[in-house]
Design brief:
Layout: H1 8-27, H2 34-41, H3 45-73, H4 75-95, H5 99-127, H6 133-162, H7 164-185, H8 195-200, H9 205-210, H10 213-216, H11 241-253, H12 256-267, H13 270-287, H14 292-319, H15 324-344, H16 351-360, H17 364-368, H18 370-378, H19 384-412, H20 423-430, H21 433-457
Helix pairs in contact: 1-4, 1-5, 1-6, 1-7, 3-4, 3-5, 3-19, 4-5, 4-7, 5-19, 6-7, 6-14, 12-18, 12-19, 12-21, 13-14, 13-19, 14-16, 15-16, 15-21, 18-19, 19-20
Bound molecules: ligand LKAUPR5Q.
């Protein structure tokens, strides 16, 4: 008789993945509401543009502290803290008219968002077998991307039809629902209690029975081969406080595999992030001369391309484990070469080249998920939250720097405002990406060699 597959890992994963999607709804909740926000707060375009930058800075700056906390508190606690912070941020956003409070609201949303993704990544290896992780990570990211779709058209519709407060209170209500679900469903690992069970001190039957899940199923942690990371020697438990933090940082950065994961995350997603977060629409309309409708049609290609790539890249990177980094490098080179073709094209790039750019560039998002696979293979289990947070800063730091440098390069050419935009100025400005790709790919090649040598020296193989 066939043994029933346990459902609990999938329920835990489902709630965690939807929490990430809600974090993305929160993250991109202002994306389609620029004019409405300007009217509501009475602000100019420059002040409006600081909102995503502040949010990104908070997100990137909190990755390492959140990673350290994650190793102490666990995924459940961090996902719930993240949910409460975002919910608080959106209640403030819904109820104030003052721009200072709106910035505070975005800081809270950025902080809550920072807690979510790496905690969801951290919970996966506790519930699923190593071979399932690349696909599950990609599907989790794909569910997250769906959050972006919700926050664009439906949210704009609700704000238009029912007003500013209703739209943001609606997001807060969805967040509250997820926090309540999280309190009763999420468990850090098989055998661990839910937050509610921890508060009441009584472990329910589902949690107790889940302890044996690993051995009984193909999904649970206990039945899987130990992650390759568990073989890494942790000589002594790191101390707490600032000294402990530096000790951990030094130890982590001393591992070539962790550095490799950082550069993998650094190299591929910044081009699409920069395009979607700020400079894509100005480039397509003010530079290339497309209508806003044509530009937004082209931009929607990025979501489709990223989602389709996510479906294929997960199985591909687990099938070709030894070559996953080279798959990533191939995608990064394709992005760089397509951009360089656009930059070198004399005059206005043809539509087919722009379509190619908007299909190839978003592959960098799913490709960057390979960084978390590399990180999982090389980070000791007790540091895995810290490691994931550290790696996740790579792409976001690169994105922030490129966003600022593109603006700086436009200003230097006297083309920093919509009435002065020109295709030539945009081409020079987007060329600031080239050193970032060169740096990223060079560091990947160096660290890949060092990682291979390190693994040979320590007699380890990838599984
Ligand atoms: N590179 C993204 C994930 C991604 C996958 N597909 C498209 N994007 C990433 O690292 N995300 C972190 C986050 O907090 O969203």
């Amino acid at each position: 008789m066939r043994r029933a597959r346990p459902i609990l890992p999938w329920v835990v994963w489902g709630v965690a993945a939807v929490s990430y999607a809600v974090a993305i709804v929160n993250r991109s909740s202002l994306a389609a509401l620029g004019p409405a926000a300007q009217e509501h707060f009475g602000i100019d375009a420059t002040t409006l543009a600081t909102f995503p930058v502040i949010q990104l800075v908070v997100y990137a700056a909190l990755q390492i502290p959140v990673g350290v906390l994650l190793d102490r508190i666990g995924s459940t606690g961090m996902i719930l803290i993240g949910g409460v912070l975002m919910l608080g941020g959106q209640v403030i956003m819904a109820t104030v008219n003052d721009v200072g409070f709106a910035i505070l609201a975005r800081v809270l949303v950025g902080a809550g968002d920072a807690c979510t993704f790496i905690s969801v990544m951290r919970i996966l290896p506790e519930w699923f077998a190593v071979r399932q992780l690349p696909t599950l990570s990609q599907v989790t990211a794909l569910i997250g991307q769906a959050g972006q779709l919700v926050s664009v058209t439906p949210l704009a519709f609700v704000v238009d039809a029912f007003g500013w407060a209703s739209g943001f209170l609606g997001i807060a209500a969805a967040g509250l629902l997820l926090v309540i679900l999280g309190v009763v469903v999420l468990r850090d690992r098989p055998g661990g209690g839910t937050m509610l069970e921890r508060w009441t001190g009584r472990l329910g039957r589902t949690s107790r029975e889940a302890e044996s899940l690993g051995a009984a199923s193909g999904t649970g942690g206990g039945g899987m081969p130990p992650p390759s990371t568990s073989m890494l020697a942790v000589v002594q438990a790191p101390r707490g406080g600032v000294a402990g933090f530096w000790q951990r940082t030094r130890r982590l950065l001393g591992m070539p595999g962790v550095r490799l994961a950082y550069w993998v995350h650094f190299s591929s997603p910044f081009a699409v992030n920069v395009f979607l977060l700020l400079w894509g629409t100005p480039f397509l309309t003010g530079g290339v001369g497309l209508s806003p409708a044509a530009a937004s049609g082209l931009l929607s290609l990025t979501v489709v391309s990223s989602m389709v790539a996510g479906v294929f890249l997960g199985p591909l990177s687990s099938r070709f484990l030894e070559r996953r980094v080279w798959i990533h490098v191939g995608i990064t080179c394709a992005i760089a070469l397509t951009w360089i073709a656009v930059l070198l094209w004399p005059g206005e790039p043809p539509l087919w080249l722009l379509i190619l750019l908007l299909v190839v560039m978003p592959l960098g998002g799913p490709a960057s998920m390979i960084a978390f696979e590399v990180s999982r293979s090389h980070t000791p289990r007790s540091f895995s939250g810290f490691g994931t947070g550290l790696v996740n800063t790579g792409g976001f730091t690169a994105s922030l720097l490129v966003i600022l440098l593109v603006g700086f390069a436009l200003d230097l050419q006297g083309a920093g405002s919509p009435e002065h935009y020109s295709l030539g100025a945009f081409k020079w400005a987007f060329a600031v990406q080239i050193p970032f790709w060169l740096l990223g790919i060079t560091m990947i090649v160096i660290e890949q060699r060092r990682t291979k040598r390190w693994m040979d020296d320590h007699g380890r193989t990838l599984r």
